Amino acid sequence: MSQSDERRELLELADAYCADRLTDEQARRLGALLRGESERQRLFLAYVEVHAGLCWGLRGGGAGRPARRRAAGRRWLVGVGGVAAFAAGLLLALWLGGAGSVPKPSPSNPLHPPASVATLRQSEQALWIGEAPDLPTGARLPSGPIELVAGLAEVELDGGAVVVLEAPVRVELRTGSDIVLRSGRLVSRAPTRAAGLSVEAAQARILDHDAELGVAADPSGPLLIQVYQGRARARLPNVEPVEVRAGESFRIDELEPQPVPVPFEERRFVRRLEPRPTGRQLPLNRPAIDEVRVVPAPPGVRLDGDLSDWNRAGLFSARATPPWDHDYQIVGMMMHDAAGLYLGAHVRDPFPMRNVLDPETDANIAWRGGSVQVRLAVVRQQPWPLDAYRPRLRTLLRQLPGPWDDDPRIVHLNMWHFAPLAQACLYVERGMDFQSADVNPPGYRGAFQRDADGRGYTLEYFLPWPLLAAGEDPPQAGDQLACCWVVHWSDAAGRNWQGHLIEVCNPLEFDNVATFRQHGSTFLRADLWGRAVFLPRWRSGIP
Question: What CATH code is assigned to 116-268?
Answer without folding.
Answer: 2.60.120.1440
